[in-house]
Specification:
TIM Barrel, 12 strands, 242 residues, eight-stranded parallel beta barrel, 11 helices, alpha/beta
Length: 242
């Protein structure tokens, strides 16, 4: 299993939100590049980055920050937020981003997802499924839908998607533990045909153990690293043991 330490960017700052609420912005680090380098030093191979401004505005906003991390570290950058067309995906990949996240587009523009997988390959595209009470939310979690998260995942699998990030919005930024029940339902409900990355609620090594023992592909860690309740070095070492 891979561990993906997270940096969310708003107004150029490294921040975390509580349950996706933009009114709860908390600055958690002073320098994005130094933070990314510290993740690399701890043994991480990937970094999960989100353009919160982009998610809200529906377009890329903080591009230089992500390309800086891709160029000035050896980390593979997984990036989401405001990616709404093939041109943006192409630009990001050419700039050195390793994998792009399509979130709202998966629900609102499934053809974009299938076209992206066909053009760039399934290794370059990950679909972010963010849910509240099992129902998918979009546009930076500001809009609710009546689509079940497992149904959306299976539709995306039929479009060629291999990688998914599942976030339980009610857990995100809360340090209350991963939603193991919904993660297992997703894993089983998709007949284990995909690579699932858990997101939201990670607090301690116990959450890393839960995700690894479940057979998940990856786990995203954010606030737990900034608050010191989880050692990235320990998490990476544990996750990588076969």
């Amino acid at each position: 299993m891979i561990i993906l330490p997270a940096i969310d960017i708003k107004d150029g700052n490294c921040v975390r939100l509580f349950k996706g609420d933009f009114n709860t912005v908390e600055k958690v680090a002073s320098d994005y590049l130094e933070t990314a380098k510290s993740f690399e030093t701890a043994g991480a191979g990937w970094i999960h980055m989100v353009d919160l401004d982009g998610a809200k505005e529906g377009r890329p906003v903080n591009t230089k920050i992500y390309t800086d991390v891709a160029e000035k570290t050896n980390l593979k950058v997984e990036l989401g937020g405001g990616i709404r067309n093939l041109e943006t995906i192409d630009e990001y990949l050419k700039m050195g981003i390793s994998r792009v996240i399509l979130g709202s587009a998966a629900l609102k523009n499934p053809k974009l997802v299938s076209d992206a997988v066909e053009k760039f390959g399934s290794e370059k595209i990950v679909v972010g499924i963010d849910a509240l009470d099992g129902m998918v939310a979009t546009e930076g979690w500001l809009e609710a839908s009546d689509v079940n998260y497992i149904d959306l995942a299976n539709k995306m699998i039929s479009e060629g998607v291999k990688y998914f990030i599942f976030t339980d919005i009610s857990k995100d930024g809360t340090l209350s533990g991963v939603n193991a029940h919904q993660l297992k339902e997703l894993y089983d409900g998709t007949a284990k045909k995909c690579c699932i990355i858990a997101s939201g609620g990670v607090h301690t090594m116990n959450d890393i153990r839960i995700c690894k023992e479940m057979g998940l592909y990856g786990t995203i860690c954010g606030k737990s690293l900034y608050k010191g309740t989880l050692s990235l070095k320990d998490a990476v070492e544990y996750a990588e043991v076969q």
